Amino acid sequence: MSDRAAQAQEMSRRVADLTATAAGADGAVRVTVAASGIVTELRLDDRVRSWPATRIAAEIMATTRRAQARLAGAVADVAARTVGAGSETARAVVASYTTRFPAPPEESDDDRSPRRSER
Hints:
Elements: H1 3-16, E1 18-24, E2 29-34, E3 39-44, H2 53-82, H3 88-100, E4 114-116
Antiparallel strand pairs: 1-2, 1-4, 2-3
C-alpha cells in the first residue's frame, strides 16, 4: 500500500471516530453527534421541564446544528495531521462536511469543542 493510500485510510478511520458536542440554553440542552451527524447523545437539564414543548424542540434542533457544524473543523484538523491540509483529499473531505453541516449564524462560546471517541 502506498504512503498516500495509507494516509487516506488513516484519515478515514480517524474521521469515523470523531464526535462533536454542543450545549445550548445555558447548558440545559447538550447534544453529541457522530461523524455522520447523527445524534448519539441528548441531555436535557431539569430546567427544560418548565419550558413549552416548542422551545425544547427548537433548542434541541439549534444545538444539534451547532454540534454538526463543529465536525468540519474537527475533520480539517484530522486531515491536516494525516494527509496534509493542502492536499486534494483533505480539501474534498472538509468541503463535504462544510457543505453538509454549515455553521449556524449565531455561535456562542459554550462548550462546543469536538472530541474524539474511542471505539
